[in-house]
Amino acid sequence: MVYDNDTSLLLCLVRSALWQTPPDLSAIPAPDAAAWQRVFRMANEQTVAALACRGLDFLPESLLPPEDLILRWVAVADRIERRNRTVNAVLRELSAAFAAEGLFPVVLKGQASAQCYCQPLLRQSGDIDLYFPHDGDARRAETWVRRHGAHIEREADGSMFYTWRGVKVEHHPRLIDLYHPRLQRMLRRAEAQWGFAERSIAGEGFGVKVPAPALEMLMLSSHILKHAMGRGIGLRQLCDVAVACQSIPSASYGEAFHRLCRATHTVRWQRLLHACLTADLHLSPADLPFAGAAASSAPLMRIVLSGGNFGQHGAAPAPGARPWRRKMRTAAAFLRNLGFSLRYAPAEVFWMLAQLCRGQRIIDGPR
Asked: Which pTM does this prediction carry?
C-alpha cells in the first residue's frame, strides 16, 4: 500500500523503535515543522507516541523535529512510561491479592503484550484485562472485588469492569474474541489441552500467567479482527502482534496455531494480518507463525489509518453523546465494514450482529 509522506514517516519511526534499527528515509522528503506536527498528532491518535519518540533517536540531527516539539514529545513519552509503572503496580497488587484467595487470573493483552517489546514501558497501556479459567473463580473474584469496595459495572456478554487505584480493570468471560458458540466450545477444549505459561513483568519482580503461545496469538489477532469489523483498530495492536511473533519462536507453536486458524475459519484473516506485519512493520517473514501473506495489506491498513485507536479519531460521537447515538454510530460502522467482515470472517458476522442487536458493547469502544 502506498502511503503519504506523514504516514510513511510515522511507520519508519515505529519500525525503528520496534526493531532498534535506523529508518530508511530515502523515499521520504525531509519533513518541515508542519509535517512533524502532523506526525506527532498521528502518533498520539494511534497510541504509539512513546514508540515513535524512541524512533527519533535513530534520526540524524539534521532531520529531527523542532526543539519545542521534541520537548512535548518527550513529555508525552514520559507520561506513558509513568502510567505503565502505575498500571504494573496495580497489576502486582491485584495478582498478590487474588493469589492469597487461591485465584490465579490470566492476563490478556496490555501489560502481558508489553513484555514482548524491547522497552516494555514504551507500549502505551490501557486497561488491565483478566480472565479466570477455572469454574467458579470468576464469581469468587467478583465477590472479593465487591467486598473491597469497588463499584462494578457489567457488559451484556458477561464481562465486568471496575476502577482500582485509578486503573480500569476488566474481567472477561472468555479467552478469545470469537463469538460463534461452536467455536467457543472448541476453544475451551484447546485451552484445556495447551493451558497457560508464565511471563515476567520486566523490572517489577513478579510474573503473570498468560495464554499458551498458540492461544495468545489467536487472542491477539481475533481482538484486532473484532474491532476492525466494528468501530476500528489502531497501529498499537498491530505492533503487539508483531513483537509477539518476533519474541516467541514460531517452531514452538506455529503448527498448532495454523490448526486453530483452520478450525476457526480465520486463515484468510491471518494472511491479511501477516501482510501488515511484514509489509508495513517489516517483521521478518521467518518470524510469522505460519507461511503466507495476502498480496496487499490495504484492506486492514485503511481501517487502521482512518480512525486511529479503536476508531476514536474517525467518525466517533462527541464525548458525552447519548447512548442511543453511540449505538447508532457503532451500527453504522459495522455496516460500513460489512464487506470486509464477510470476506475475512464470514462465520462471525451473524453472531456479532446478534450481539450488536442485544446492545452489547463488543465493538463500541476501546478495550
From this structure: 0.92
